[in-house]
Structure formats: C-alpha cells, structure tokens
Amino acid sequence: MPLASRLCTRWFSLGLAALVATGCATSTAPVAPVTPVMSGAPTAAAPVRVKVFVAAMFEIGQNTGDRAGEFQHWYERYWKGATPVTVPGALQPVYCNADGVCGAVLGMGKVNSSSSMQAILLNPKFDFSQAYYVISGVAGTPPQRGTIGEVNWATWLVDYDLGHRWAPEENKAGEPTFMPRKGYEEYRRFQLNPALVGWAMKLSADTPLKDSDSARKYRLRYPDAAARRAPFVGTGTHMTGDTFFHGPGMSKQAQYIAKLYGADDYVITEMEAAAITLVIKRTHGTERVMSLRGAVNFDQGNPSESTLAHLDPAPGETAGGFAETVENIALVGTRVVDHIVGHWPQWQGGVPKP
Fold first, then answer.
1. Where are the domains of the chain?
2. Range 48-343 has CATH code 1.10.10.10
3. Residue 74's closest CA among 277, 328, 341, 348?
4. Looking at the DSSP assignment, which residues form a beta bridge with residue 178?
5. Best label site of 58, 163, 206, 233, fewest CB within 10 Å?
6. Is 154 helix (H, G, I), strand (E, B) or coil?
7. pLDDT tens profile 180-206
8. How far apart are the C-alpha atoms of 244 and 25, rounded to whole Å?
9. Helix/strand/coil percent split, the chain, to 5
C-alpha cells in the first residue's frame, strides 16, 4: 500500500473531521465516523453553587475548640468537619457545606481582605452567580450611637480614606480637615440594597443577645445613653479605614465624611467592608451584599480619659464583652443565612419583596 494511502487509512480512524482537515481522499462508500474512546479520562468536578458566602477577617487560633475569633462560631455552625478548599491567592482556605453555604477568613485590612475575596470569586471551583454575601466581623462604635456587644447591619459602606487630610493646627479652628479627592466617586461609598437590609432586620432584630458583667461595668464609664444600652441589633453607616482611629476628633470627622457623601449616621468603624464590596461589585454587583459587625470597643475614651490612654489602656481597663460579641454576630447572622438557604426558590432569583 502506498505511504499516502496508509497514512489516510490511519487518520481515518480518528474520525471524518480529521480526514477533512488533512485533505485525504476518501472512497465513495459511506463510512460512519469513529468516536474516540476516552476510557478512564478524568472529568472536572462541577463547581460549588454558592448560596451564601460568609467572610470573616481573622481567627484567633483554631477554627474550633479554643477562644473564638470572628470565624469560629460560623465554622462550628456550618463547616465542622468540612474539607478545606485551598484557593491560590487567598489567605485561608474556603469551607462549604452541602447546602451551599461557604465561608473563609480573608485577612484584616483593605488590601488583605479584598485580594483574598477576588481570588475566591475568580476560582473556577465556585459558582457565585447567585450568591449572597455576609461580610462579618468585630468593630468599634461611637458612644453617642452604639454600645459594646451590639450587632449592626450596614445601610451604607463609606471609605474613610480616598481624600486629602491635614493637621488641625493648619486650619481654622473647628473646620474640617478632610476633603474628598476627585475621581473616587464610584467606590468611596456604597449604598447596600435597602430591601436586603430590611429583610436582615426583619429576620434578626429580636435575636436574644449575650452580655457580660465586664461590659456592663465598662459602659458606665460613659455618660451617653446609647453607650449604656444593653446589646441590640441596629443599622447605619459602616466606615472602612485601614487606620484604627481614636478620639472624639476622628469620630467627628468620620461622621462628617458620612454626611458629606449622603450616607446615614456613622455607627461602625471597621477595616474591610468597602474594599470587599468593590471587588464583589466588579464581578457580580452589590444587590446581594450584607455587612454585619459587632461592636467590641468605643472609638474614643470617656470624658475623664485621654485618647492615648484609651488607645493603649492599662491592664484591666479594656472593654469587656469580646467573647459575647463574636457570639452575637453569629447568632444574628445565622438567622438570615438559614432563612435564605431554607427558602432558596424564593431567593435565588433576587431579593424577594417583603
């Protein structure tokens, strides 16, 4: 048999398409194309269809069995025994359960948390096309508007930075020392879906919250009625900044920025939510984003305490209630997560009408 005929005969076994591509002549007799047999070939696993993703910023030790940080109560509720999924570019692995609830520790600060979130969102092991997000962690609050142990759903997320600042002594007395920088209008503040915030409050506002004797005692150092309240579930603007700002002056500036941008009253200071939300917005939009924070400190000292003393307190002078607050966050947040997952046919297409 001529060489060309032998080659065409061999190529024919690969199918009719290969014959056409190589230009081999065929006989006039019709021959059915042969389908290659892929015996034993590996198949890619279908991506996890994420219904709710819970983002925490840090954990103190292990995910279970020791002192709880921001992730442990969530982990023990949804992922105890789950196989960790390593994601290149993310700080910690992702955990998922059979109901489509996933979560991870993203890291503290804007860059740390947002880079982890982006790596997870872009990883092909997950399908986030219909996912809801709960950005969860501890925070500070001004004593005029919040208290230790409270849990707060964000109505707005505002970036504390992205502008110009100067020293107070370089300005007229009492005037603001912050000016927004042009060009950041699209990502210096986000209004979260009011319908979703409404659902979150409807489902969680009456959650019984934990408290501690140490927190009760600490609150009495402040004359403000809000500071002396027992823990509650509320809403308001969350201020995102990489700086742990302290003192009445910085607190006043945060409120000034919130009002400058048309947001609600500033009630929570934290370090990640606006940055994480920007990443989510660029991939899937913000209609399904929630930010949930628990207050573990006030953003300023009491009237008889200097800002430096508040920033670096002596032993025994810190606010109590950390353990209770991280538990409160999960108590409140799981009510919403469980409802969404338990009523998925009503939620998968978008936030239902109340």
1. 48-343
2. no
3. 328
4. 165
5. 206
6. strand
7. 888 888 889 999 999 999 999 999 999
8. 76
9. 30, 20, 50
